[in-house]
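B., you asked whether I could sanity-check this one before it goes into the benchmark set. Here's the sequence:
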Amino acid sequence: MKLFSAVLSTSLLLLLVGARGNHSDPIRVRVLTYNIHHGEGTDRRFDLWRLAEVMMSVQPDIIALQEVDRGTDRAGGLDQLAELQRLLGMHAEFGKALDYAGGGYGVAVMARWPLLNPVNHPLPNSPDSEPRTALTVHLRTSETGLLLRFTSTHLAQGRGSGDRLLQARYLNELLLADDEQPSILAGDLNARPGTDAMEVFDTHWTNAAAVGPPQTVPTRRRRQRGDYVLFRPAENWRVIETRVIDDRLASDHRPLLTVLEWIEGS
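And here's what the prediction gave me:
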């Protein structure tokens, strides 16, 4: 009986220690944003496996994709998101920006957690410019963990684009309705730091590359392509790492990885 009680007491102690350990474990989220150039590499080859290898190499939890083709003639009728989902073994949702060449073209979100409440938001644009969109999903990092709102977007291109400024303002209005919601906005914003569009975001979002450890950028071709990971509320996140993945072949963009840690109770 004494032996049984001792075993039971030890077991309860281990359970309590385990529960405390799980409770205190930090919540880290590995975010990757990647403009995949409709699957076409700089060598003009369409190779989704090559893209998947680049993404898998950094083990992301969530991926914001831009320039994704689904069933277009250009992609040989292939549903690129479904194929990437198969290769990476992740959950996926598509946000169509426009009909194109017999199929659809737009942005996507992939994650290792189920994606909840996907909503595609067409962005304002002038009649003669290419339509753009933003896809917002919710996901929970564990059964009882952080409920996170995540948005993938691709803003208008072109120097001095008035559409890009309108789109930035629209996204702020759209995503700031719930001020306390933990949120990440990632994608190809086609804007350099300090430009009008980025100043709009800077009023309510924090640029991970600007506040974290020095960004790791390959020494060759340092020019930034306009890819960002933004987050809010600022006081609840810590930037652990941010770096550009040095692959110049799979796409005309290089993916940007950001590792964020949620600070409970800030």
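One thing to flag: The domain at 30-262 is CATH 3.60.10.10 (Deoxyribonuclease I; Chain A). Otherwise nothing jumped out at me.
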